[in-house]
Amino acid sequence: MGRSFKILPLIIAAVVILFQYLGSNKFRDPETGKVHRGALSSGDEAALGLQSYQEVLSTSDVVSSGPDVDLVTRVARRLIPATGDVANDFQWEVSVVRSPQVNAFCLPGGKIVVYTGIIPLAQNEAGLATVMGHEMAHATLHHGSQRLLKQGLMQTAMMGAAAATGSMDNGKRQMVMAALAGGAQFGILLPFSRDQESEADHTGLLYMARAGFDPHEAITFWERMSKSGGAHPPAFMSDHPSDGARIERLKEEMPKAQAAYEQAQSR
Ligand SMILES: [Zn+2]
Asked: Catalytic annotation on 135?
């Protein structure tokens, strides 16, 4: 009986992971000073963002004028300058899509899409600024690119593990692979997405405050969202679980946002 576990594929995977990591792009978050790594350069991100934007618009009912477009454009015009130098190379653009979906997103490079379904829940300009500020922060913080890098590294690790266990008994091998995949999901990707959510909340809160929207409205908005959950939570909620912890964190960050808001008022 030969060895059922091979070490060489793991060594190769580790070397590939190292190169993937070292070849990745660094981004500095100006709000926290933290340096992050992402899979794509800003230029590649923007090109992909533009492509997705055009795809979404070509398959959606785009609203070209009217009160919803005026509202969304007005909020975007105030939020964009509040993002600062981090988005200097962004080509901001905003579109409104007629759809009952409670959704909004901002693609890498600054292409924003707001669905009319989220407007009644946003209720007012500050509510909409909460949603849009949060989504814009995901883009300025390069969250998509960071996620791609993590997924790529994990994929390499899984390929290494698959090769390393290639000659194991099939049942045992499936157990090992399932345990690794589960561990990656619950130990790495899910906490990562929770971290990204609180980063986007924090940065989005500063954006809205600097743009002159009352940051306290963010708390009211998330409280409203959590009540609207129910049996069929809207699409936006599945990506943005509105738990008590998130609202508590926002309250902790409020003094800094309040100061930014007051500064914006006095200008
Ligand atoms: Zn989010």
From this structure: yes
**Domain ranges, ordered by start, for the chain:** 8-266
User: How many angstroms from the chain centroid is the CA of residue 222?
Assistant: 17
Give 254 Cα–ligand 1 centroid separation in angstroms.
Answer: 19
* CA nearest to 210, candidates 136, 138, 149, 103: 136
12's tokens:
């190769």
Q: How far apart are CA 12 and CA 129, in angstroms?
A: 47
Residues 257 and 206 sit within 8 Å (Cβ to Cβ): yes
Copy the structure tokens of residue 120: 């009644």
Distance 166 CA to ligand 1 centre (A): 39
Instruction: Report how far ligand 1's centroid is from the alpha carbon of 200 (Å).
Output: 6
- Distance (angstroms) between ligand 1 centre and the Cα of 36 equals 17
User: Is the pTM here over 0.90, yes or no?
Assistant: no
Q: Split the chain (267 residues) into runs of 10 and give each run's mean pLDDT.
A: 75 85 84 84 90 94 97 97 90 96 92 95 95 95 87 84 84 83 74 84 96 96 78 63 82 95 90
The residue annotated as part of the active site, out of 125, 135, 217, 253, is: 135
